[in-house]
Amino acid sequence: MVKKSLATVFVMFLTLVLGSGSALGADEKKEKKNKDANSVSGVVKAVDSTKKTVTLEVKVKKNTEEKVLTLAGDGSVKIAGKDATLADLKVGEKAVAKLNDKGEIASITSGKKEKTK
Q1: Residue-level pLDDT at 6
Q2: Please, how many CA atoms are within 13 Å of residue 104, restricted to the half-sphere of its CB?
Q3: 3-state class of 93 per DSSP?
Q4: What is the mean pLDDT of the chain?
Q5: Separation of alpha carbons 58 and 13, rounded Å
Q6: Partners of 56 in the beta sheet?
Q7: What is the band of 111 on the pLDDT scale with cuts at 50, 70, 90?
Q8: Hey, which residues does 43 pair with through a beta bridge?
Q9: Which of 12, 19, 55, 105 could pair with 46 in a Cys bridge, judged by C-beta atoms 3.0 to 4.6 Å apart?
Q10: How far out from the chain centre does Cα 44 lie?
């Protein structure tokens, strides 16, 4: 009877430990998904410096759609690792926009960084 009770306690302990481990894994996946949700990557389709907007063509599942994003007041633009302006973004290039809590572009990067020797 004591062995049966110990076995039951052991199984409950394993269930608790393994169950909390998978919950932690789920939290990590959720955090990564949220982090990904705060960025948009795609091909630059249009730039409007006056309105401070960039239109990116992004893949959504098997389709593509255009997203018009606005540069935040304190947003930054980098091309090949160097500071730039929205007007410097080129149509047809790939870009990654990191968004702030309002869904505006906090930073957008395009082009490859030059390798230093």
Answers
A1: 57
A2: 13
A3: coil
A4: 80
A5: 46
A6: 44, 67
A7: confident
A8: 57, 94
A9: 55
A10: 17
